[in-house]
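User: Predict the structure for this protein chain, please.
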Amino acid sequence: MTTPLTRARTLTTFPPPVMEARRWISGVTFAADKPLINVSQAAPVEPPTEGLRRAIAETALNLPEAHLYGPDLGLPALRTEVAKSVSQTYNGTVHADQVAITSGCNQAFCAAMISLCGEGDEVILPTPWYFNHKMWLDMSGVKTVPLATGDGMLPDPKQAEALITPRTKALVLVTPNNPCGVEYPQGVIAAFRDLARKHGLALVIDETYRDFHSDSGAPHDLFTDPDWSDTVIQLYSFSKAYRLTGHRVGAMLAAPERLAEVEKFIDTVTICPNQLAQHAALWGMQNLGDWLAGERLEILDRRAAIEEGFDVLAAQGWKLLGVGAYFAYVEHPFAKPSDQLAKDLVQEAAILALPGTMFMPEDDPSGQRQMRIAFANIDRAGIKTLFARLAALVPDGASA
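Assistant: Here is the predicted structure, written as structure tokens:
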């Protein structure tokens, strides 16, 4: 007899969306002349550069301590490099003791939330939200308060303020956004910082995709404030920048007092970040600046291809709600809800994409009309093919 799960924390949330979508293609055979176009996940599928792979191999062979436990908050050299990089990028001041290295950006979010929230506390998330943020809040007994975005898929600080209660502990922003791709303007970000400070809250800003921002300058001025760490917690991932998704290495920037609490979580869950991954991230930061600049230009070109080629879908009633970094977020013209449409696209068009229902509260009907396209792994030609397949699906019975 299995142990009952009626009180298990995992039952408070939904199955992992990407894993759920992968099950839709299990056992499906795709024609050679119509292979699967997988736009379901925002993760590079190519391996790291040969130089980075060699650096990982040399570290594994020649640095014995890379196979041992390391400091809970990460390698001092990597923390220092991150502080230096952020200070330069944002024209601000960040110190190494304000940096923690984590096992991916998801762990950074979890660590931040557990250091901020207790049972029954509240966190405000703009919708559409990044589903793993919602999942962790569910499993940790924290109430997610959805903040609907408006024009341009941007959150409104005034609307956010109306949602704040005595139980609110944090406001969360993701920019460039997942799932919408939208880059939040500096003024919006600053307004949320001011709002958080006014109410004694944390502003948690997830910048996983900052390396692919369309603006080559600082995306915001949060770090120019000498007191930034009394309010701001920044999250970052090395996975997208250096193709290190499987190595799980991310970062959190926060006050040293906050990181002392985060250290308890890391020590309990992973003890320390992966040592080889940290050396890989450090090598990447020190040696792959020009290469990463080229990757950014390629992603920006794919974004341009989405915008330039969308007319073929617009003619069929599709709407482009947001685009940037790795994502395009769209509204479809079909009568069927997006969760059914996404499954049908596998069979009818050999396309795997995630429905808007995976990024929205169950009681928000807009998710049924929306879909996310993660275009990091399809080039201009692939985008053209994707749009052609979608345009070929005549929306019979579509809603007006």
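Residues 232 and 313 are 40 Å apart (CA to CA).
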